[in-house]
Amino acid sequence: MIKIRSLALAGAMLLAATSFADAKEEIIFGISASTGSLQQQTAAEFVRRANEKLGDKAEVKLFDSSQIGKDKELMQKLKLGTVHIALPSSIMSSISDEFALFDMPFLVADRSHLARIEEKIFWPKIAPTVEDGGYKVLAVWENGVRHITNNVRPVSTPQDLNGLKIRTPKSTWRVKMFEAWGANPTPMAFSEVFTGLQTGVIDGQENPYTNIASAKLNEVQKYLSKTGHVYSPSYPTMGKAMYDKMDPAIVSVLEATARELEAWARDKGEEADTALKDKLVAAGMSYNEADRAAFVAASKPIYDAFAAEVKGGQALIDDAIALASGS
């Protein structure tokens, strides 16, 4: 009897071990962006395509709207390995100064210019700078072109920002930008912005149309000013330790799929720009176009500071500007 029970137990253990070995690897993808935003749509399309290719090897599961953490927490969880992929945007400049190139106001002329910056500057000179910090960037997706909203007055020139409490991401360089323009920048997690605006803790914020619309900020903001002051990429990113440890066949699928979504995201962003602006105006926001030249003139101190404080900063700026013509 004991022998039969031992054989049965051994068989059960073997079956359990086989089932465990055959189980799909679960890949957790956490993002802070709201459902319906371009970042969330791109992440969802990535999950769909990656899971098709992975088949029985692994399954990517998406958690949006800060369900499993805000950006700072997600970056920590990447290093711990409890989250496998995240989608940071402006927060990357707090990890590596070189990423703040994309915080330089009016630097990126259009999406074609961004693609050239990515190829010639980002991959060889910027992406590797976060690897010593424990991260591995898979691709460059789109967050979008940023504009200013507030509840006090239309913003046409930097002078109109004087004294306004404007929420910014937790980016040192975005804070410096709004300080240079006369605002009172207030770094805050995006998930807290709606309540901050609703309660008057902040007067306004700056984001792409897609984030403004998906978070329904039109319900708590009166003025929408088209400034286009920054083009923000977002970066599907893994922890370097997890990237090195994971099955190379799985990593190859994740990386290839992330890269093929780059053009998809930019096309979607371009398509949505006009439609979302019209949607926000139809929802009751008062719209104006800011004086770009006035903002450009007021932005020189930001460029000077980047050139002085970031190693190789002036060369990064010069190289990026030189690519604007398509050369």
Summarize the structure.
The protein has helices at residues 2-22, 38-54, 71-80, 111-126, 172-180, 193-199, 209-214, 240-245, 248-282, 292-298, 300-309, 313-322; strands at residues 25-30, 58-63, 85-86, 135-137, 141-150, 165-168, 184-187, 204-208, 223-226, 231-234, 237-239, 286-289. With 327 residues, the protein is an alpha/beta fold.
Description:
With 327 residues, the chain is α/β, with parallel strands linked by helices. 47% of the residues lie in helices and 17% in strands. The protein has helices at 2-22, 38-54, 71-80, 111-126, 172-180, 193-199, 209-214, 240-245, 248-282, 292-298, 300-309, 313-322, and strands spanning 25-30, 58-63, 85-86, 135-137, 141-150, 165-168, 184-187, 204-208, 223-226, 231-234, 237-239, 286-289. The strands form 3 sheets. Strands 5, 6, 7, 8, 9, 10 and 12 form a 7-stranded mixed beta sheet that branches. A 3-stranded parallel beta sheet has the order 2-1-3. Helix 11 (300-309) crosses helix 12. The longest helix is centred in the C-terminal third of the chain and has 35 residues, at 248-282. The termini are far apart.
Topology diagram in text:
Layout: H1 2-22, E1 25-30, H2 38-54, E2 58-63, H3 71-80, E3 85-86, H4 111-126, E4 135-137, E5 141-150, E6 165-168, H5 172-180, E7 184-187, H6 193-199, E8 204-208, H7 209-214, E9 223-226, E10 231-234, E11 237-239, H8 240-245, H9 248-282, E12 286-289, H10 292-298, H11 300-309, H12 313-322
Parallel strand pairs: 1-2, 1-3, 6-7, 6-8, 9-12
Antiparallel strand pairs: 4-11, 5-8, 5-9, 5-10
Helix pairs in contact: 2-9, 11-12
